[in-house]
């Protein structure tokens, strides 16, 4: 199978990409810039290819979608790339004037999803920290109000909602979200209780087709929490799609227009 894994230069993304490659899949990895791409190619020669694009830039995200589409229709896409600025005292704006956590964690996977031919499987990496997210779509992408932890939790809640919304709009695609857990990576820190191999397992199972019995529109987690309320409301999910379309200039195609 042909599989794309974003944010695959280290941590969970790297382990997801290499585990899928070791299982015999053709894995297209992704790096933020050329130096990281060169390092990844040397570190993991089993990867089929490495694409480059900074997801904090809409221009580069669109270019990444075009480069990925040149490979054809993927069997699976794992939207793993993400940033955390939980300790930051103030927001950081991207070149597009948007708050970085939202743009990288939410708007970039939305934009890639909308621009690329739909794969058979979509895997969005969320977190049980989504439980502390706050739905306020009127301020999506805005740097104010700013609280680093809330921004991260909210981004992961929006990722969950994105996975559920795509599952509804594209019934022919298995679209699910995962919770890797608290993983000992550069983002998670050395005190985290589980390693990257364990954190990568949900993404590997879903992308590799070993969990198709779960269906679509699921949040795959071992930590008990499941979303409820507004996050599961189709109308609110569609408000998120509308906000992402407005901010990105890209509209998610309806199922009737999908070319498979």
From TrEMBL:
Gene3D superfamilies documented for this protein: NAD(P)-binding Rossmann-like Domain
Single annotated GO MF: oxidoreductase activity
Keywords: Oxidoreductase
Recorded family membership: Belongs to the short-chain dehydrogenases/reductases (SDR) family.
Name of the protein in question: Short-chain dehydrogenase
Lineage: Bacteria, Bacillati, Actinomycetota, Actinomycetes, Micromonosporales
